[in-house]
Amino acid sequence: MELLGLLVLLLGSSIMANGAVSEVSWREISNINSEGPYLGIVVPNSFELGPLLRSSSFVPHNKFPYFDFAGKHFRIGVLEKKRVIVVMCGLGMLNAGLSTQLLLTLFNVNGVLHYGIAGNANPKLQIGDVTIPQYWAHTGLWHWQRLGEVNVSGDFSRDFGYLEFANYNNCSKDFKSNTNLLNKVWYQPEEIYPVNGIPEARHEIFWVPVDKTYFKIASKLKNVKLESCVNTTCLPRKPIVTRVEKGVTANVFVDNKAYREFLYSKFDATPVEMETAAVALVCLQQKKPFIAIRSLSDLAGGGSALSNEVDVFSSLASQNAFEVLVKFISLLTQ
């Protein structure tokens, strides 16, 4: 009878609503954290996670290889002799931000690494190249002006952007006006609330820097051997690893040449994707070192309208990003 009562108590405490962590789960988390600290690794999707799971370099923990919470599967193990906790976040900024916050809240993590694939906005680089930006921005927070508005009103900035739709009118004999009813967009900085700051006292930031030490270490990654062929389809040259100045993130899959060229000319952006800025913003807010490694899978809006290079080269790009991650981790001291 006492055993039955204990089982009921444990079952009841492990199933809690509203995302609360049960006592049973906290004990398991404490056991995991007792062997930390860990490097946190955030990966967007399963095909980007695949190279890690297939690699002999990743060894799951023999007692607690994973911990499931709030729809997330945290894999615990060792990669290049460093203790790591890996989480696949899923597509988009909401998933990336939530996963990163859970990672930092639940576990003893001393730094966050993010890797995956990205579209390319930089005509100087090619598919398969691996980029490591120094700064990241969320380019999906807009003030979309009404037609005829002269000043940006209220609590909005005119420091970043702007995208004026009239610059992209496709004029013809039937349409000669340079007026576009969509008007223009000013890009806005994010609001963050640092963990050691005054509650509800916001700080605005547009370009989020990666960790200076991590970025310096990344300068040693130039000689990583990268894949250049998918079956019999090969790239024009061997891919390279390069540090670049800027990358941008929004909940938009960019497959449009004009917008790609705008992002490059206006922001000097190279990788264009859907998760990294969210990871960067959470790490900035929580005062955790962070860096992102993004391999270029396609020229955003390039190629044929009937196909996309990402369909061919996503596996190659994912593998290349992972190879650079492994080398980067090997250079760290834990």
Radius of gyration: 22 Å
What is the rounded distance between the termini? 48 Å
Architecture per CATH nomenclature, i.e. the level-2 architecture: 3-Layer(aba) Sandwich
CATH superfamily: Nucleoside phosphorylase domain
Give, in order, the helices and strands: HHEHEEEEHEEEEEEEEHEEEHEHEH
What is the average of the pLDDT values? 89
Strand order of the largest sheet: 6-17-16-7-18
**Uncertain residue ranges:** 3-17
- Secondary-structure class: alpha/beta
CATH class: Alpha Beta
The number of helical segments is: 8
Q: CATH topology, anyone?
A: Rossmann fold
Number of strands: 18
Helical content stands at 25-40%
Describe the structure.
With 334 residues, the protein is an alpha/beta fold. The chain has one domain: 3-Layer(aba) Sandwich (Rossmann fold). The chain is 28% helix and 29% strand. The chain contains eight helices and 18 strands. The protein has helices at 2-14, 23-33, 46-54, 93-106, 212-217, 257-267, 276-285, 310-330, and strands at residues 38-43, 58-60, 66-69, 72-79, 82-88, 109-120, 130-138, 142-144, 160-164, 184-187, 190-192, 203-205, 208-209, 229-230, 233-234, 241-249, 269-273, 290-299. The strands form four sheets. A five-stranded mixed β-barrel has the order 6-17-16-7-18, surrounded by four helices. α3 packs across α8 (310-330) and α4 (93-106) runs parallel beside α7 (276-285). The longest helix is centred in the last third of the chain and has 21 residues, at 310-330. The chain is globular and about 70 Å long. Mean pLDDT is 89; it is low at 3-17. Residues 39-329 form the Nucleoside phosphorylase domain. Residues 1-19 form the signal peptide.
